[in-house]
């Protein structure tokens, strides 16, 4: 393993730069040339290769986003596009690749790795925390902190005006951000894609709070909730429940940005370091994760197809504590 590449793909996540830094400096430490690939799989196809030195990744540990950029790439879904990417890797005499991303990134990596028998290791970079094979993904902790900070500020306004706020957070297919930010923010209820939302039950929760002299309420709604998202839920509730003035806030892409938390910096550094060591040791086609504080390796196929289950006991706890 003399020359390795690193790329970021899919949605950006705080901590990706810390992972890039770890890959570059670990690779150099072990005598490898390290090449950055700009704009993910699109950069592989369009030959956007950038040689890295150790100083190339100075002062990026604390930065959000990704210095390598990221992009969606439909061409990589086609065999001709993947062949072009492989030819570029061979032209640059690449021996292995570290990819940082989520479900889509690892789906592409799995296909490519098997198709061309090319060594690839993955590190889980997604704020959704929905990959099997790791307790936490890069960016999740920072996104939680961002959401909780916003919820705290909105709570001040809710209490000042006796308002009912529906706050929509990211989570099209998974409710991990909604669940833990809801607990940390003291939400009266949390609506996630993994459960069926009952508007009647939600109203009963609100009425119970009203009977206990609550003057405001905050409901956290994952964007993929089956009732249709925060605006739709708010509309349905308002039709039956008139005690509060209702407002909706969609946090959107603010959840992706910002300086990574100390936890995400440490996690990203560890995973990047371990991914390079794994390549050098001859591993391939796997995601590096951490479970119960131990480094583990999960095949790409298992990481993306074995859905991580949400803790339903935490949902019940959140309702009781609210």
Please give a structural write-up.
This protein has 322 residues and is an alpha/beta fold. It folds into two domains: 3-139 and 260-305, Rossmann fold; 142-256, Rossmann fold. 43% of the residues lie in helices and 19% in strands. It has a seven-stranded mixed β-sheet with strand order 3-2-1-4-5-10-11, with helices on both faces. It has a four-stranded parallel β-sheet with strand order 7-8-6-9, sandwiched between helices. The model has no long low-confidence stretch (mean pLDDT 93).
Blueprint of the fold:
Blueprint: E1 3-8, H1 16-29, E2 33-37, H2 40-45, E3 49-52, H3 79-91, E4 96-101, H4 103-116, E5 120-124, H5 140-161, E6 163-169, H6 176-184, E7 189-191, H7 199-211, E8 217-222, H8 230-240, E9 245-250, H9 262-280, E10 286-291, E11 294-299, H10 300-305, H11 312-321
Parallel strand pairs: 1-2, 1-4, 4-5, 5-10, 6-8, 6-9, 7-8
Antiparallel strand pairs: 2-3, 10-11
* Total domain units: 2
How many β-strand stretches?
A: 11
The first-to-last residue Cα distance is 54 Å
Question: Helix/strand-derived class?
Answer: alpha/beta
Strand content: 15-25%
Under CATH at level 1, the class of the largest domain stands as: Alpha Beta
Main pleated-sheet profile: 7 strands, mixed
Strand line-up of the largest beta sheet: 3-2-1-4-5-10-11
What CATH architecture of the largest domain do you see? 3-Layer(aba) Sandwich
Average pLDDT level: 93
Instruction: State the helix count.
Output: 11
């Amino acid at each position: 393993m003399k020359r390795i590449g690193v790329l970021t793909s899919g949605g950006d996540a705080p901590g990706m730069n810390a992972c890039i830094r770890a890959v570059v400096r670990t690779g150099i430490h072990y005598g490898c040339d390290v090449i950055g690939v700009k704009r993910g799989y699109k950069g592989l196809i369009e030959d956007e290769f950038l040689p890295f030195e150790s100083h190339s990744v100075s002062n990026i540990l604390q930065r959000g986003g990704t210095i390598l950029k990221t992009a969606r790439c439909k061409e990589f879904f086609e065999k001709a596009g993947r062949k072009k990417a492989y030819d570029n890797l061979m032209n640059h005499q690449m021996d292995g690749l570290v990819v940082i991303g989520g479900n889509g990134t690892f789906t592409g990596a799995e296909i490519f790795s098997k198709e061309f028998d090319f060594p690839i290791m993955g590190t889980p970079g997604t704020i959704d925390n929905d990959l099997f094979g790791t307790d936490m993904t890069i960016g999740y902790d920072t996104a939680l902190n961002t959401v909780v900070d916003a919820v705290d500020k909105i709570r001040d306004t809710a209490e000042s005006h006796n308002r009912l706020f529906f706050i929509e957070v990211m989570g099209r297919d998974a409710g991990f951000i909604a669940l833990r930010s809801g607990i940390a923010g003291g939400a009266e209820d949390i609506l996630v894609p993994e459960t069926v939302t009952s508007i009647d039950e939600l109203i009963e929760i609100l009425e119970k709070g009203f009977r206990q002299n609550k003057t405001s309420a905050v409901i956290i709604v994952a964007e993929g909730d089956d009732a249709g998202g925060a605006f739709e839920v708010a509309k349905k509730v308002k039709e039956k429940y008139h005690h509060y003035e209702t407002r909706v806030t969609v946090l959107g892409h603010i959840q992706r940005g910002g300086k990574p938390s100390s936890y995400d910096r440490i996690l990203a550094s560890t995973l990047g370091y371990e991914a390079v060591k794994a390549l050098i040791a001859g591993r391939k086609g796997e995601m590096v994760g951490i479970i119960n504080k131990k480094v583990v390796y999960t095949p790409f196929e298992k990481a993306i197809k074995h859905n991580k289950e949400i803790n339903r006991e935490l949902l019940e706890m959140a309702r009781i504590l609210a």
